[in-house]
Amino acid sequence: MVQQVTSGIKISVETSFEGSFYKNHKMTFAFGYQITIENQSKDSVQLTSRFWRIKDALNNTEIVQGEGVIGQKPVLKPGESHTYTSGCLLNSPFGSMRGYYNMINFTSSKKFKVSIPSFKLSAPFALN
Fold first, then answer.
1. Quick one: pLDDT at residue 20?
2. pLDDT tens, position by position, 61-114
3. Which one of 1, 13, 22, 26 is most buried, counting C-beta atoms within 10 A?
4. Considering all CA atoms of the chain, what is the largest pairwise distance in Å, rounded to the nearest integer?
5. Residue 26 covered by a domain
6. What are the counts of helices (DSSP H) followed by strands (DSSP E) for the chain?
7. CA pair distance 86, 72, nearest whole angstrom
8. DSSP track, 74-106
9. What is the 8-class DSSP label of residue 110?
């Protein structure tokens, strides 16, 4: 598990390899990740959008950005957490992801970024 705290918001990430299959005549590797966002601050906050940089071992980079996470914009009171599961497809058995969440603090009305720590994606069969 990878963890990081930014501005009182703790991000924890766990990954899993979901399998491989052919897509458009190419081998594709599926990975899942579970993220827990925990509000360790004294203020209520809301996640408004996300930004991801996804890299595979072939040096391909994909940028993903958009509103909320899996169709939600969770509001977290102090001490609350939100967990969600998502995934991505890579063209290689290794890769990594990193990014950030855009959030708003309801007490100060200030917008801020919460870093998502870099985490590795790896198919167990490819490990030496």
1. 93
2. 999 999 999 999 999 999 999 999 999 999 999 999 999 999 999 999 999 999
3. 13
4. 52
5. yes
6. 0, 9
7. 13
8. -EE-TT-EEEEEEEEEESSSEEEEEEEEEEEET
9. -
Tell me the whole-structure pTM to 2 decimals: 0.92
The CATH number that applies at residue 68 is 2.60.40.1470
> Among all chains, which residue has been given the structure tokens 């490990």?
127
User: CA of 22: how far to CAs of 19, 27, 56, 79, 92, in Å?
Assistant: 11, 5, 17, 43, 12
List Cβ neighbours of 34 (8 Å cut-off, separation of 6 or more): 13, 14, 15, 16, 83, 84, 85
104 residue type, one letter: I
> Taking 60 as the threshold, does the pLDDT of residue 128 lie above it?
no
Residues 33 and 70: beta-carbon distance below 8 Å = no
pLDDT at 125: 80
- Residue 14: is its pLDDT beyond 70? yes
Q: How many domains does the chain have?
A: 1
User: How far, CA to CA in Å, does 54 sit from each of 31, 34, 38?
Assistant: 12, 15, 23
